[in-house]
Amino acid sequence: ADKLGASYSLFSAPIYLSPGTDKAGFLSEGVFKTHLRKLEKLDLAVLVVGDVTDKSFLVSMGLPSGITADDLRAAGAVGDVLGHFLTVDGVEVDHPINRCAIGLDLDSLSQVPQCVLAAAGAHKVEAIIASCRRGVVDTLITDDVTGHLILDKLG
């Protein structure tokens, strides 16, 4: 970042709080509060999506104990953005995991002037569609195969 004349900041926090943890209290701590204020002033966000298969790093390595991909799929999840799981229609699933996610919420993300999603692969098609329907994608970067799969899915 220094060599490019850019700035950066690191947000060192778990992606999910343990159930029962006071989220508001946790996020009111100085370092988290300061970083969340920065996130709310973003001009551009570059995003990725995850799916709810074993190919997903979050599903295979980052879900809280006691929560499985099967649980999320049963709740209607097809993928996640920033750890928030969505239905194919772009609605956050009604599951406790979404209430435990740390960081920028999807309503705040939708206020960022430019959100770029970089994602590809047949396993991510529904998650890409869900993210676009949620309104958190202004620009999609993908490959031709995934693009055709998205268009086929949308009919």
Can you put this structure into words, describing what you see?
The structure is a single chain. α7 crosses α8. The model has no long low-confidence stretch (mean pLDDT 92). It is built from eight helices and six strands, in the order ααββααββααβαβα. The relative contact order is 0.17. It is α/β, with parallel strands linked by helices and 155 residues long. The longest helix has 11 residues. A hairpin with a 2-residue loop joins β3 and β4. The termini are far apart.
Brief digest:
The chain has 155 residues and is of the alpha/beta class. Helix content is 37%, strand content 13%. It is globular.
Fraction of residues in H or I helices: 25-40%
SSE string, helix = H, strand = E?
Answer: HHEEHHEEHHEHEH
Task: Let me know the number of strands.
Answer: 6
Structural class: alpha/beta
Parts with pLDDT < 50 across at least 5 consecutive residues: none
Mean pLDDT: 92
Largest pleated sheet:
3 strands, parallel
* Cα gyration radius (Å): 16 Å
> What overall form do the CA principal axes indicate?
globular
SS field, number of helical segments: 8
In the sheet with the most strands, the strands line up as 1-5-6
Key traits:
3-stranded parallel β-sheet, 155 residues, globular, alpha/beta, 3-stranded antiparallel β-sheet, single chain
List the helices and strands and how they pair.
Elements: H1 23-27, H2 30-39, E1 44-47, E2 50-51, H3 57-62, H4 69-74, E3 79-81, E4 84-86, H5 96-100, H6 106-109, E5 114-118, H7 125-134, E6 139-141, H8 144-154
Parallel strand pairs: 1-5, 5-6
Antiparallel strand pairs: 2-3, 3-4
Helix pairs in contact: 7-8
